[in-house]
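Predict structure. Chain length: 207.
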Amino acid sequence: MPSFDLLSIGHSSIAIERFLAMLRSAEVSAVADVRSVPRSRRFTWFSKNSLAGRLAGEGIAYAAMGDVLGGRPRDGGLYRDGVADYEAMAAQPEFLSGLKHLIDTAARARVCLMCAEREPLDCHRCLLVARSLAQRGLAVGHILHDGAIEPHAATERRLLALDRETCDLFATGQKERLAAAYRRRARAVAFRRIGDTPKRALAAKSR
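Prediction complete.
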């Protein structure tokens, strides 16, 4: 297994036994739940209290971190045209403090970020949190639903491939192209507020 400083996973509709097996296979010892709302109406085993209990039974620690690392900001100023602005969120003191805590914990445990979306490129755990970690030199791996672990650099290559048709003609360098691809993907999938009711911008998500 390649060496990773942190991992990530999207629970989607995975059966709890399969989910726990995937964590065991990846040798995860702590789960950082980055959902802004840590519950699931359809898959109740992923609601905060139920999940924490099942993880404890496996010897895996659980921490809810959606208040500082979640994808649904409470501050209306962190939305751009109604869509959560990941770049603005990444500069917030609360986010930076949460990121530091995550990094400090990862030095002592094998931490896995957890959110709901199956596909990393549909989720802020990748487009916001993992990106910020990678920018700080940490190696992040995304646990996919077949059990494979995709290095974040490979996920970024998929992002660039997906973004090829809408490539920014003014972003000539690889760094600029990648930043533009992140920005466009975030605009497509980030949490959206319509009036007072938050909704996701992506109409159909892979589950």
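Summary: The chain has one domain: 6-200.
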